[in-house]
Every structure is written in structure tokens, then in C-alpha cells.
Amino acid sequence: MAGPSRLAFRVPDGVAQVPFTLDELLDWSAWTPSLVPVMFGPGALEVPAIREPEPTETCLELPYRLILEPDPQSTWAHALVPREVAGRAELWHSPP
């Protein structure tokens, strides 16, 4: 009912590799998200056209082809240890 989702980031110059550890893979604080440029703010001369995300841009697809983009000002934070709720462990947790 939905296509694949992806999170894409612009890697800073000089970064040749990211250590393959859970802590490093979940710490996105140094990365700038790669998003479809549809946001505009005060003083913008023109509004960018809405289009599908490119393969190098974030695409969060939900059922029935609803595609969402995070706000450019948003950040991601992840639990680094499993969190149990009502006796069940979450597979993924990103608190606001």
C-alpha cells in the first residue's frame, strides 16, 4: 500500500566514512537533511514547484501514496537502547 521510504542527508566535505556502529548510525546531528525544496519563507521571491523527491532526497511514504517531507528546521533524536512499553520492545523510536 506504500512504496519504500528513505532518509537522505548531505554529508559534510571531508567525511570519507561513517563508523558502522549503532551510536554512529543513529547520530544524525552532524548531517543536513536532503529535502525537496518546496519550503519558502518571508522575503522569498517565488515559490518552488512541488515535485516528487529525487533518489537523493528524503521520502517518507505512507499508505495510499501519501509522501511526507520533514520540515527543514526539524531534527531527529533516537533512543540508543531498546525501550520497553507494556512488555514490548520498540524496534524504532524517534522522540520529538
Describe this structure in words.
The protein is mainly β. It has one domain (1-96). It has one helix and six strands. The protein has one helix at 22-26; strands at residues 9-10, 32-33, 60-62, 66-68, 84-85, 88-89. It has a two-stranded antiparallel sheet. A two-stranded antiparallel ribbon has the order 3-4. Strands 5-6 form a two-stranded antiparallel ribbon. The longest helix is centred in the first third of the chain and has 5 residues, at 22-26. It is globular. 0% of the residues are buried.
Features:
mainly beta; 1 helix; 96 residues; 5% helix; two-stranded antiparallel ribbon; globular
| Share of helical residues | under 10%
Low-confidence stretches: none
Q: Briefly note the structural class of the backbone.
A: mainly beta
Placed side by side, the strands forming the largest sheet appear as 1-2
Number-wise, the strands total 6
The main sheet comes to: 2 strands, antiparallel
Tally of structural domains: 1
Encode the helix/strand succession as letters. EHEEEEE
Structure annotation, total helices = 1
CA-CA gap between termini: 26 Å
What's the rounded overall pLDDT mean?
A: 80
What overall geometry do the principal axes of the alpha carbons give?
globular
- β-sheet strand percentage: 5-15%
Describe what is shown at a glance.
By secondary structure, this protein is mainly beta. It is 5% helix and 15% strand. It has one helix at residues 22-26, and strands at 9-10, 32-33, 60-62, 66-68, 84-85, 88-89.
